[in-house]
Design brief:
The structure is a single chain. The protein has 313 residues and is mainly β. The chain is built from 1 helix and 24 strands. The protein has 2 domains: 55 residues, no CATH class; 217 residues, Jelly Rolls (Sandwich), CATH 2.60.120. It is 3% helix and 41% strand. The strands form 4 sheets. Strands 4, 7, 8, 10, 15, 16, 17 and 19 form an 8-stranded antiparallel β-sheet that branches. An 8-stranded antiparallel β-sheet has the order 5-6-9-18-11-12-13-14, with no helix packed on it. The longest helix has 8 residues. It holds the Pfam family Laminin_G_3.
Length: 313
């Protein structure tokens, strides 16, 4: 657990000021604390023959993917050695390559984690979906590096776009370098959370389960590199694409990401004005923006109140 700068907030009971001390903390996972469960699907791309049109699943579950328009994809150096799949992007309906995922990646699941090492090329055509898990535009889970506001966005819904639970970063996904992007769908906590390089970016409340992303008529689990909407195809490279039939803990996400997990370095806002009665804890912001050691700002939502300070006259 890392504790950031203490925030002092002025609160008033009638006309008497009350000094409160609010300790803002961020749970920084220990990557060595717990290992993740076995994934249900793993695409490393290391031994794939793109001309064959099959993306091999190395999990041992036989959930091989289908490469569509494979002549426009290439294998490039991967995030940590080996190979990665580089996708050309392009307009919806173009000849750009993408991967179709087998239905059993989602079938029978309740909780879910999807993780991939991503090197986005930085093309700012909005709404390129890195992956689309689900059936169609009525039920899905996706992440885009650059939404209509130019920000990293994850969303999940089982009732079309109007029912989306949205998790939005403060800026786009950093481009031109390898980043580990992980999303957990945790029905026990009722949250969908986006992680970048093992550290949580933000989360949102949701009641959607993995099982609700498909129905009896669904024939595949979705795509890598393509949206269910007529959005641009993803332009960038994908490596180590994984699906787990469980919501990984923060420690497990850090273990999957590997390396040093980014840590908070400061707060973008250090004071808040609140109004409360004496002896009553004030309403606090749900989350506070913080800068992190990797240069990507994230939300911190673990805010606690220290005992009340002595009232000032």
């Amino acid at each position: 657990m890392t504790t950031l700068t203490t925030i002092t907030t002025a609160a008033r009971a009638a006309l008497l000021p009350v000094a409160l001390t609010i300790a803002l903390t961020a749970g920084i996972p220990d990557a060595a604390a717990a290992g993740p469960p076995d994934p249900v699907l793993v695409y490393t791309f290391d031994a794939d023959d793109l001309a064959a049109g099959t993306i091999a699943d190395s999990s041992g579950n036989g959930l091989h993917g289908t490469l569509v328009n494979g002549s426009t994809a290439v294998l490039v150096d991967g995030a940590g050695g080996g190979r990665a799949l580089d996708l050309p992007g392009g307009a919806a309906g173009s000849s750009g390559a993408y991967v179709r995922l087998p239905l059993d990646a989602l079938k029978g699941k309740t909780d879910l984690t999807v993780s991939a090492r991503v090197r986005w090329d930085g093309t700012t055509a909005p709404w390129q979906w890195i992956y689309a898990l689900g059936k169609d535009t009525t039920r899905y889970l996706f992440t885009t590096p650059y939404n209509g506001d130019g920000r990293l966005r994850t969303a999940v819904t089982s009732s079309s776009a109007g029912g989306e639970a949205q998790v939005t970063g403060y800026t786009p996904l950093p481009s031109g370098s390898w980043k580990t992007l992980t999303v957990t769908l945790d029905t026990g906590a009722g949250r969908v959370t986006t992680y970048l390089d093992g550290a949580a970016v933000a989360s949102a409340a949701t009641t959607v389960t993995a099982a609700q992303l498909i129905d009896a008529a669904t024939t595949s689990a979705g795509y890598i590199g393509r949206s269910f909407y007529p959005d641009p195809l993803f332009d960038g490279a994908i490596d180590d694409f994984r699906v787990y039939g469980a919501a990984l803990s923060a420690e497990q996400v850090a273990a999957v990401a590997g390396g040093e997990v980014p840590t908070p370095t400061g707060l973008t806002r250090a004071e808040f004005d609140v109004r409360t009665t004496a002896g009553t804890p004030p309403a606090l912001p749900a989350a506070v923006r913080a800068s992190f050691s990797d240069g990507y700002d994230r939300e911190i939502d673990k805010i606690t109140i220290a005992p009340f300070a002595q009232r000032r006259g």
